[in-house]
Protein backbone atom coordinates (compact mmCIF):
# COMPACT_ATOMS: atom_id res chain seq x y z
CA UNK A 1 0.00 0.00 0.00
CA UNK A 2 1.43 3.36 -1.06
CA UNK A 3 1.05 6.22 1.37
CA UNK A 4 0.45 9.62 -0.18
CA UNK A 5 2.53 12.34 1.40
CA UNK A 6 0.66 15.60 1.87
CA UNK A 7 2.62 18.62 0.69
CA UNK A 8 3.44 20.98 3.52
CA UNK A 9 2.18 24.51 3.00
CA UNK A 10 4.42 27.54 2.98
CA UNK A 11 3.39 30.69 4.85
CA UNK A 12 2.30 32.33 1.59
CA UNK A 13 0.22 29.30 0.61
CA UNK A 14 -1.34 29.25 4.07
CA UNK A 15 -2.47 32.88 3.72
CA UNK A 16 -4.05 32.06 0.35
CA UNK A 17 -5.87 28.94 1.57
CA UNK A 18 -6.80 29.72 5.19
CA UNK A 19 -10.62 29.58 5.67
CA UNK A 20 -12.53 32.73 6.60
CA UNK A 21 -14.85 31.03 9.09
CA UNK A 22 -12.61 30.66 12.13
CA UNK A 23 -9.19 31.20 13.67
CA UNK A 24 -6.36 29.16 12.20
CA UNK A 25 -2.59 28.75 12.42
CA UNK A 26 -0.05 27.13 10.13
CA UNK A 27 1.59 24.37 12.18
CA UNK A 28 4.17 22.04 10.64
CA UNK A 29 2.86 22.76 7.17
CA UNK A 30 -0.82 22.15 7.98
CA UNK A 31 -3.76 24.47 8.64
CA UNK A 32 -4.89 23.97 12.24
CA UNK A 33 -7.95 25.55 13.84
CA UNK A 34 -7.26 27.22 17.17
CA UNK A 35 -10.40 27.93 19.14
CA UNK A 36 -10.57 29.43 22.63
CA UNK A 37 -12.95 29.54 25.59
CA UNK A 38 -14.69 32.75 26.64
CA UNK A 39 -12.42 32.98 29.68
CA UNK A 40 -9.39 32.78 27.41
CA UNK A 41 -10.81 35.50 25.16
CA UNK A 42 -11.64 37.67 28.20
CA UNK A 43 -7.96 37.74 29.17
CA UNK A 44 -6.87 38.58 25.63
CA UNK A 45 -9.48 41.34 25.34
CA UNK A 46 -8.43 42.82 28.69
CA UNK A 47 -4.81 43.02 27.56
CA UNK A 48 -5.71 44.49 24.16
CA UNK A 49 -7.60 47.28 25.92
CA UNK A 50 -4.87 47.81 28.52
CA UNK A 51 -2.06 47.99 25.97
CA UNK A 52 -4.10 50.15 23.60
CA UNK A 53 -4.94 52.68 26.34
CA UNK A 54 -1.29 52.86 27.36
CA UNK A 55 -0.08 53.33 23.79
CA UNK A 56 -2.59 56.13 23.27
CA UNK A 57 -1.84 57.78 26.64
CA UNK A 58 1.90 57.93 25.93
CA UNK A 59 1.63 58.54 22.19
CA UNK A 60 3.56 55.36 21.36
CA UNK A 61 3.96 54.16 17.77
CA UNK A 62 2.06 50.93 18.40
CA UNK A 63 -1.05 49.19 17.13
CA UNK A 64 -2.56 46.51 19.36
CA UNK A 65 -4.62 43.73 17.80
CA UNK A 66 -5.69 40.14 18.38
CA UNK A 67 -6.03 39.13 14.74
CA UNK A 68 -2.51 39.31 13.32
CA UNK A 69 -0.71 36.35 11.80
CA UNK A 70 3.04 36.26 12.39
CA UNK A 71 5.43 34.26 10.22
CA UNK A 72 7.85 32.26 12.33
CA UNK A 73 10.25 29.41 11.63
CA UNK A 74 10.54 26.35 13.86
CA UNK A 75 13.74 24.54 14.84
CA UNK A 76 13.44 22.33 11.73
CA UNK A 77 13.32 25.34 9.41
CA UNK A 78 9.60 24.89 8.69
CA UNK A 79 7.59 28.08 8.19
CA UNK A 80 4.82 28.55 10.72
CA UNK A 81 1.90 30.97 10.80
CA UNK A 82 1.26 31.88 14.42
CA UNK A 83 -1.63 34.01 15.61
CA UNK A 84 -0.78 35.42 19.06
CA UNK A 85 -3.74 36.13 21.35
CA UNK A 86 -2.45 39.72 21.47
CA UNK A 87 0.05 41.37 19.12
CA UNK A 88 1.71 44.77 19.44
CA UNK A 89 3.09 46.00 16.12
CA UNK A 90 4.78 49.17 14.96
CA UNK A 91 2.13 51.52 13.60
CA UNK A 92 4.62 52.87 11.07
CA UNK A 93 5.31 49.36 9.78
CA UNK A 94 1.63 48.40 9.78
CA UNK A 95 0.49 51.54 7.94
CA UNK A 96 3.29 51.39 5.36
CA UNK A 97 0.94 49.18 3.31
CA UNK A 98 -2.64 49.49 4.52
CA UNK A 99 -3.98 47.51 1.55
CA UNK A 100 -2.09 44.41 2.67
CA UNK A 101 -3.69 41.73 4.87
CA UNK A 102 -3.12 41.17 8.57
CA UNK A 103 0.05 39.13 8.34
CA UNK A 104 3.59 40.18 9.19
CA UNK A 105 6.98 38.62 8.56
CA UNK A 106 9.00 41.08 10.64
CA UNK A 107 9.58 40.68 14.39
CA UNK A 108 6.93 42.51 16.40
CA UNK A 109 7.67 44.28 19.70
CA UNK A 110 5.35 42.16 21.86
CA UNK A 111 3.29 38.96 21.60
CA UNK A 112 0.97 37.44 24.21
CA UNK A 113 -0.23 33.86 24.44
CA UNK A 114 -2.96 32.83 26.88
CA UNK A 115 -2.43 29.18 27.75
CA UNK A 116 -4.99 26.43 27.36
CA UNK A 117 -4.95 22.63 27.23
CA UNK A 118 -2.15 22.63 24.63
CA UNK A 119 0.05 24.62 27.03
CA UNK A 120 3.30 23.05 25.81
CA UNK A 121 2.85 24.85 22.49
CA UNK A 122 3.11 28.18 24.33
CA UNK A 123 5.82 27.22 26.83
CA UNK A 124 8.04 25.35 24.36
CA UNK A 125 7.27 25.69 20.64
CA UNK A 126 6.08 29.30 20.43
CA UNK A 127 8.69 30.42 22.95
CA UNK A 128 11.38 28.99 20.67
CA UNK A 129 9.83 30.42 17.51
CA UNK A 130 9.30 33.92 18.95
CA UNK A 131 12.85 33.97 20.28
CA UNK A 132 14.15 32.77 16.90
CA UNK A 133 12.17 35.51 15.09
CA UNK A 134 13.41 38.19 17.47
CA UNK A 135 10.18 39.30 19.17
CA UNK A 136 11.39 41.65 21.90
CA UNK A 137 8.89 40.67 24.58
CA UNK A 138 6.67 37.61 25.02
CA UNK A 139 3.97 37.33 27.68
CA UNK A 140 2.59 33.93 28.63
CA UNK A 141 -0.55 34.07 30.76
CA UNK A 142 -1.29 30.82 32.58
CA UNK A 143 -4.54 31.86 34.26
CA UNK A 144 -5.56 28.23 34.79
CA UNK A 145 -2.22 27.18 36.31
CA UNK A 146 -2.37 24.38 33.77
CA UNK A 147 1.34 23.88 33.05
CA UNK A 148 3.55 21.47 34.95
CA UNK A 149 5.19 22.21 38.30
CA UNK A 150 8.49 22.58 36.47
CA UNK A 151 7.17 25.94 35.26
CA UNK A 152 4.67 26.95 37.95
CA UNK A 153 6.31 25.61 41.09
CA UNK A 154 4.67 23.65 43.89
CA UNK A 155 1.91 24.39 44.72
CA UNK A 156 0.87 25.46 41.25
CA UNK A 157 -0.63 28.94 41.11
CA UNK A 158 -1.77 31.06 38.15
CA UNK A 159 1.06 33.17 36.80
CA UNK A 160 2.12 35.61 34.11
CA UNK A 161 5.56 35.01 32.58
CA UNK A 162 7.33 37.81 30.76
CA UNK A 163 10.22 36.87 28.46
CA UNK A 164 12.54 39.65 27.31
CA UNK A 165 15.04 39.23 24.50
CA UNK A 166 18.62 39.81 25.71
CA UNK A 167 21.46 39.15 23.26
CA UNK A 168 19.20 36.95 21.17
CA UNK A 169 17.90 34.82 24.05
CA UNK A 170 14.87 35.12 26.28
CA UNK A 171 15.23 35.87 29.96
CA UNK A 172 12.08 35.19 31.96
CA UNK A 173 10.37 36.67 34.98
CA UNK A 174 7.41 35.06 36.74
CA UNK A 175 4.66 37.21 38.27
CA UNK A 176 1.91 36.04 40.62
CA UNK A 177 -0.70 37.63 42.89
CA UNK A 178 -0.13 41.33 43.55
CA UNK A 179 3.20 41.45 41.68
CA UNK A 180 3.32 44.40 39.30
CA UNK A 181 4.22 43.14 35.83
CA UNK A 182 7.34 44.83 34.48
CA UNK A 183 7.30 45.40 30.74
CA UNK A 184 10.12 46.83 28.65
CA UNK A 185 7.63 47.77 25.94
CA UNK A 186 5.08 49.47 28.21
CA UNK A 187 7.36 50.67 30.98
CA UNK A 188 4.65 52.53 32.94
CA UNK A 189 1.94 49.87 32.66
CA UNK A 190 0.22 49.62 36.08
CA UNK A 191 -0.94 45.99 35.83
CA UNK A 192 -0.60 43.24 38.40
CA UNK A 193 -0.62 39.52 37.70
CA UNK A 194 -3.85 39.22 39.67
CA UNK A 195 -5.61 41.80 37.49
CA UNK A 196 -4.65 39.92 34.34
CA UNK A 197 -5.61 36.52 35.74
CA UNK A 198 -8.96 37.61 37.20
CA UNK A 199 -9.93 39.27 33.90
CA UNK A 200 -10.83 35.75 32.78
CA UNK A 201 -13.94 36.08 34.99
CA UNK A 202 -13.46 32.51 36.25
CA UNK A 203 -13.98 33.80 39.78
CA UNK A 204 -17.65 34.30 38.88
CA UNK A 205 -18.19 30.55 38.52
Summarize the structure.
The protein is of the alpha+beta class and 205 residues long. Helix content is 28%, strand content 26%. The strands form 3 sheets. A 6-stranded mixed sheet has the order 3-6-8-9-10-11.
Describe the structure.
- This protein is an alpha+beta fold.
- It has helices spanning 11-17, 38-58, 91-94, 119-133, 149-152, 193-198, and strands at 24-27, 30-33, 62-65, 69-73, 79-82, 86-90, 103-104, 110-114, 137-142, 159-166, 169-175.
- The strands form three sheets. It has a six-stranded mixed sheet with strand order 3-6-8-9-10-11.
- Strand 10 (159-166) and strand 11 form a beta hairpin.
- 31% of the residues are buried.
- The mean pLDDT is 92.
Any chance you could write out the topology, listing elements then pairs?
Layout: H1 11-17, E1 24-27, E2 30-33, H2 38-58, E3 62-65, E4 69-73, E5 79-82, E6 86-90, H3 91-94, E7 103-104, E8 110-114, H4 119-133, E9 137-142, H5 149-152, E10 159-166, E11 169-175, H6 193-198
Parallel strand pairs: 4-7, 8-9
Antiparallel strand pairs: 1-2, 3-6, 4-5, 6-8, 9-10, 10-11
Amino acid sequence: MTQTQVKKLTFTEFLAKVPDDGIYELVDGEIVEVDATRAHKNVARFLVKSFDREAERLGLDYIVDKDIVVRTVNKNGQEQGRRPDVSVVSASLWNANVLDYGAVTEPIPLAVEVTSTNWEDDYVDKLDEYERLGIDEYWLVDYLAIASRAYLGNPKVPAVFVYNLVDGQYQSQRYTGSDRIISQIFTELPLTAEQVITSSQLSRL
